[in-house]
């Protein structure tokens, strides 16, 4: 497998320590609490060390988003779309599964993506990373839905429209699960099954 | 109509000026750029004036979110659910309609909600306001879907599950439209129609 830019193995040990510290600070204090001083303290390194790895805070935060989205995308693209129902289940579990059954590194990546989405509205660098992430989620879902519709596993429909719809639903449920006290994941999961699978009306 | 706490008429003129300034700063600089100094400058008032209306920045930001969600909720709850297809169309237009066809005050409210969603992950005050907003969106959609299913306007299904699904889709599309350069609204709109309306398979 080629080393894509989002592979954490591409980062130096020092960068990885700073990225993990950035993840922890983001998840505890939010984007507004993400100061260079706090990241340095959390990583146990000096600010000077931080600046030897990254030009400034924006570059570090952008790299944290590249790593977070990369973790999710890599996992997604490893799923086999030749069993589209299982692939869709695995996608829903990856993005909406409870913290008790999903690996901590994935839960952390999901929260970092949500934390930085709002900031992407006013930050072109973050916006570019999230556009690429949503593009890949969309491409993956479209292929999965195309195969599933072709094989009669999913109801007939336009894979392009359905994929955008399912991507929005997954992103919306993920954002709501982080930003409210509402329990949305299990109902949305049931809703996606009802929407896509032809058995839903007992036929 | 009773004066609910989210009615802007409840706010003093000074508060309303500060709230509108907070909206503008949030939409231009994001949550990370939302300092008391910048809000005061944007409103043309002194910091002292600001502190005469609000105890601190957190109280002002929370009130901005109460006003933004209130604008959307009030509009939503004025829609008549006895024509559920039209009510659903109007809901989609309210939350996803292009800035060229939706009133500026609604576009501003939508962006403020997206901007503050991420921060709600680490701020209990904001989290409480967004939980209430999503609860009301859900309740409204459930009623709209219940009536539509009963009248055969929408496909059969469980209104509770469908409402959570549609709420997640709308929130996800709104967040994606603000945080990426992708054009999602029109496809998601088409996807919702295909999901809910019995004519979708040409039957």
Helix fraction of chain A, binned, reads 55-70%
What is the second-level CATH architecture of chain A? Orthogonal Bundle
Distance between the termini of chain A: 44 Å
| Number of separate domains of chain A | 1
**In DSSP terms, counting alpha (H) and pi (I) runs of 4 or more, how many helices of chain A?**
9
Give the assembly state of these chains: homodimer
Spans of chain A of 5+ residues with little confidence (pLDDT < 50)?
none
Mean pLDDT of chain A: 90
CATH homology superfamily of chain A:
Tetracycline Repressor, domain 2
How many DSSP E strands of chain A? 0
General shape of chain A: elongated
SSE pattern of chain A: HHHHHHHHH
- What would the CATH topology of chain A be? Tetracycline Repressor, domain 2
Main sheet overview of chain A: none
Strand percent estimate of chain A: under 5%
- Structural class by helix and strand composition of chain A: mainly alpha
- What is the level 1 CATH name of chain A? Mainly Alpha
Could you characterize what this model shows?
The structure is a homodimer. With about 200 residues, the first copy, chain A, is mainly α. The first copy, chain A, has a single domain, classed as Tetracycline Repressor, domain 2. In chain A, about 70% of the residues lie in helices and about 0% in strands. In chain A, helix 4 (about 55-75) packs parallel to helix 7. The longest helix of chain A has 27 residues, at about 125-150. Chain A starts with 12 loop residues before the first helix and ends in a 7-residue tail after the last helix. At the A-B interface, helix 1, helix 6, helix 7, helix 8 and helix 9 of A face helix 1, helix 6, helix 7, helix 8 and helix 9 of B.
């Amino acid at each position: 497998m080629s080393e894509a830019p989002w592979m954490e193995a591409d980062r130096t040990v020092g960068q990885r320590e700073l990225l993990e510290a950035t993840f922890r600070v983001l998840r505890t204090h939010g984007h507004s609490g993400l100061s260079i001083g706090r990241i340095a303290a959390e990583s146990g390194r000096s600010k000077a060390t931080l600046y030897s790895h990254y030009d400034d805070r924006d570059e570090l935060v952008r790299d944290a988003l590249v790593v977070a989205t990369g973790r999710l995308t890599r996992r997604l693209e490893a799923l086999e779309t030749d069993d589209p129902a299982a692939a869709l289940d695995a996608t829903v579990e990856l993005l909406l599964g409870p913290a008790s059954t999903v690996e901590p590194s994935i839960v952390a990546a999901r929260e970092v993506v949500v934390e930085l989405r709002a900031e992407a509205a006013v930050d072109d660098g973050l916006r570019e990373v999230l556009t690429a992430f949503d593009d890949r989620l969309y491409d993956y879902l479209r292929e999965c839905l195309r195969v599933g519709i072709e094989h009669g596993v999913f109801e007939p429909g336009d894979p392009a429209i359905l994929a955008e719809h399912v991507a929005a639903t997954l992103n919306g449920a993920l954002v709501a699960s982080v930003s409210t006290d509402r329990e949305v994941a299990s109902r949305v999961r049931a809703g996606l099954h009802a929407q896509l699978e032809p058995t839903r009306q007992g036929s």
